Amino acid sequence: xxxxxxxxxxxxxxxxxxxxxxxxxxxxxxxxxxxxxxxxxxxxxxxxxxxxxxxxxxxxxxxxxxxxxxxxxxxxxxxxxxxxxxxxx
Length: 89
Fold this sequence. Notes:
By secondary structure, this protein is mainly α. The protein is 92% helix and 0% strand. The protein has helices at residues 2-9, 11-45, 50-88.
């Protein structure tokens, strides 16, 4: 039981790190991902050579990867927070 007690004692620290460091970084990543995705969409819609289209495809891909990371983070942190809150009750 000492492992669970030490985990319960760390909950305020974990929540503080999440709120003050990780969440703002995820918002920044989300903004950058949306910008990359939109830039890739606009570049893909313009008529250009094959090299430009490949660059736009890469931007689209990296934008989607970034958005996937943000949404995955949101889901995982929801599960972890719910689990820690149920343990503390």
